[in-house]
Specification:
The complex is a heterodimer of chains A (about 425) and B (about 240). Chain A is of the alpha+beta class and about 425 residues long. Chain A contains 13 helices and 10 strands. The chains are: A alpha+beta (about 425), B alpha/beta (about 240).
Amino acid sequence: MKNYLFELKEGLIISLKAIRSNKIRSVLTTLGIIIGVWAVVVMTMAIRGIDESFQTGVASLGSDNLYIDKWAWFDNDIPWWELRNRKNLEMDDFRRYVELAKLPLAAAPSAGTNRTIKYEDKSVEFVNIQGTTNQYINTTNLTFAQGRFFNELESKGGRQVCVLGSEVNNKLFPLGNGLGNNVKIGGRKFKVVGILEEQGSWVMGNWNPDNQVFIPIENIFRYFQSQRHRSITINVRAPNSQMVEAVKEEAIGIMRRVRGLKYDERNDFSINQQEGLLTNINQTIGVIQVAGLVITGLALFVGAIGIMNIMFVSVKERTREIGIRKAIGAKNRTILGQFISESAMLCLIGGFIGLFLAMITSMIIAQMDFPSKITPDSVILAIMVSLITGVLSGFAPAFTASKMDPVDSLRYE
Amino acid sequence: MNIITIEHIAKVYQVGMEEVHALRDVSLRIDKNEYVAIMGPSGSGKSTLMNMLGCLDTPTSGLYNFKDHNVSQMNDNELATIRNKEIGFVFQTFNLLPRSDALHNVELPLIYAGITSHERKERAAAALESVGLADRMHHKPNELSGGQRQRVAIARALVTNPSIILADEPTGNLDSKTGEDIMLLFNEIFEQGNTIILVTHEEYIAEHAARIIRLRDGLIESDENVSDRFIPGKKVSVD
């Protein structure tokens, strides 16, 4: 064992010397590995960032939630036209559901629209305005930076009050003095009663609570969309995750009754769940991962071939050196180890350069509000990937070197 | 003491469709502290014999015993070990590692013998000193003259205290003055109790040896003891 360690150490010293004496060639050779490792690290970083963002997004919506809706979010078995021809879900449906349902912790209707929101000379276009009731806050995990959600009185009375998502707030009130001021949503005046904390679910886009504004649902019907043409969503929260299935079963029963369906008719509503959202997200991430894997794999493969090529050249060039080493007592495995460690070292150097570039990339990306950070495991990943690439691509040339005949290689010119 | 015993060894090379009999039937014994020159024209098989003696190659048939080891049956690794421990090579073209300094070149066999860095440095330095290169330790081969390079190679051959020194045309790439100096160095080494096998085709180089083996067409043509001849630098024993 000691002997192997000794040989490893000497092999490393010899390879370092060999690499140093061919600096330019070494750097050019490792370019493929540099790009490969860079891609591996940046990819894992990006995927983790996206994933984290989805997870926090979903968490902010609440994981024990059901959404009774005319539309199915993910169920593609039902043809689109059938979904479209379903009766709208109306406020009456919601009220009867609330009357009959015993299991939910909270239930709230919601209807959304996109409007421009203004404060003095600042405005944000195309903001997702969610009309709902005071119960809505109990169906989510949203937290407040300032103020509160609108109360029952404001909700029932259809008062012109609103709660701003953090990003909307930052754009309208960069100084943070929004609470109590009046903003204009689609030209109507609303008083800001609450501002949400940042939820940080960047990838959810318009569904990110940071980009949303909440107002009493009456206002949506009064100002923005007629109730008759607008289907609402019923947001239902189960008391805990074990109860989700029971709440769902109950909801199906109640909704069939409320909608007056006969026993042989299909449901004309869908019960959506975040589980669906999660599977959908995971599918997306899966696709990104596979694409990332293919790209990085390809880059590394090209890099590995470059290394293998230059190692073959190096072995050929140093045929005589190999002969000398063998004549004075180097064993086959010593020569094998020497060249494998040389190629591993080359790749490792490339790996560190790649890692360094990835760190710079991550800093640049972080400037653009994309969640990205280099974690210790991506460092380990980069090192392992380059080490393994080095050993694998160095093996064939090293094996050739180790099998060289000392007599022939000493005579090689 | 008997170091090398060769019995009826032959070596056949396959060159294309043709079989080349480099060595046909060679038997010889070399004892400790002998100074042997192997001579012969090109194609006589002297290089093949040298490779065989140096454990760089194994015979096609016949027996080769190095001390107690049966070399003819050895695999690559065992051959490498015996080369490392028992044989010191000196080549015509020096065969030094061009990118390493003299000290590291001399250290090399000790690395493969698994000797620690500190002891290696000491022994390599001592070997370089003994060939008169104490002040050239950190010079690379291209910073040394031909004679100095060959001295580094001799130091490398001596550093492991091998049983035999095998020199293949050691003066072939040197001018005659430097060549003579190198031969004097070999004489010194011989006098210290080492066994030297010299492969050459120059008569005046072979004259340094005490025994001359002549090869022709893969067979030993003559094997004569010439120790009564004048050996430069060697005290002639009077008895």
